[in-house]
Specification:
By secondary structure, the chain is α/β, with parallel strands linked by helices. The chain has one domain. It contains 4 helices and 3 strands. It has a 3-stranded parallel sheet. Helix 3 packs antiparallel against helix 4.
Length: 77
């Protein structure tokens, strides 16, 4: 099963995994599932970072690189 997370959950998955529901963590860790990173979430991060939102001070390019390095698939628009 492909798992696509909303932007907040993506941020939490990489920086604050303890905020994720344990069921979601199990799904993400199960090798039968394929987590996907949507390019639209990266766009949202760029926009919110540009608006100086305190909860979005991540560099989208670094976040993308980190997800791809741990085996997530990128979902294009």
């Amino acid at each position: 099963m492909q798992l696509s997370l909303d932007t907040h959950l993506l941020v939490w998955a990489m920086g604050e995994p303890e905020r994720l529901d344990p069921t979601l963590v199990r799904l993400l860790e199960d090798p039968i599932n394929t987590p996907v990173l949507s390019v639209t979430s990266l766009w949202e991060l760029v926009i919110k970072r540009g608006l100086d939102r305190p909860d979005f001070h991540l560099k989208p390019s670094l976040l993308r690189q980190a997800f791809l390095e741990v085996g997530w698939r990128e979902l294009p628009v």
